[in-house]
């Protein structure tokens, strides 16, 4: 049976019809959140790589918790608050989030494919704990893979943020 769900995505309320694939505007039960974000809303900052919950490239915040959006069904997101990399900048000033600025300052990426997922994972961590220890940072990032081996710069940037966060 068709149903309508509503969620906030980057502070904007969005409604979707969950129903049978093929009808315009309807989302099938099995559609993933990453697919909805990228293919329906053009929020392509959320990357997909493994599609199996193993690489962290598709990480977004769901109710302030970092989750792999390729493992979340959009149909299950009724009432959820979703934040993607596109929604991270200050909505009033347009300024980048401090994590984004720090990544630029510290050259904490190379090709950048994994970077949105890493930044969203760190955002979730810093929301829970503004001053995580290095081991907590490493633990939080253990599900985020980077083929370019930018981990050292990422940890360096995260450690600096953990010291600076007030
Ligand atoms: S694409 Fe979702 S975890 Fe790899
Ligand atoms: S910077 Fe290239 S995959 Fe991480």
Describe this structure in words.
Helix 2 crosses helix 5. The model has no long low-confidence stretch (mean pLDDT 95). Strands 3-2-1-6-4-5 form a six-stranded mixed beta sheet, covered by helices on one side. The protein has 166 residues and is α/β, with parallel strands linked by helices. The protein has two domains: 85 residues, Ubiquitin-like (UB roll), CATH 3.10.20; 67 residues, [2Fe-2S]-binding domain (DNA polymerase, domain 1, Orthogonal Bundle), CATH 1.10.150. It contains five helices and six strands; from the N terminus they run E-E-E-H-E-E-E-H-H-H-H. The N and C termini lie far apart (49 Å). The structure holds FE2/S2 (inorganic) cluster (2 copies). The site of one FE2/S2 (inorganic) cluster has 11 residues, from loops.
Q: Which labels suit this protein?
A:
166 residues, Ubiquitin-like (UB roll), DNA polymerase, domain 1, 6 strands, globular, binds FE2/S2 (inorganic) cluster
């Amino acid at each position: 049976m068709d149903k309508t769900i509503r969620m906030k995505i980057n502070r904007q309320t969005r409604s979707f019809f969950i129903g049978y694939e093929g009808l315009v505007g309807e989302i099938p039960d099995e559609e993933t959140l990453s697919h909805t974000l990228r293919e329906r809303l053009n929020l392509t900052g959320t990357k997909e790589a493994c599609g199996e919950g193993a690489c962290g490239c598709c990480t977004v915040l769901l109710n302030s918790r970092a989750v792999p959006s390729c493992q979340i069904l959009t149909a299950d997101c009724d009432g959820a608050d979703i934040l993607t990399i596109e929604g991270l900048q200050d909505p009033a000033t347009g300024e980048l989030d401090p994590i984004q600025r720090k990544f630029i300052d510290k050259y904490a990426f190379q090709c950048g494919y994994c970077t949105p997922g890493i930044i969203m994972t760190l955002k979730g961590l810093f929301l829970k704990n503004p001053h995580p220890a290095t081991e907590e940072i490493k633990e939080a990032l253990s599900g985020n893979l980077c083929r370019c081996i930018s981990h050292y710069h990422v940890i360096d940037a995260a450690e600096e943020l953990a010291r600076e966060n007030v």
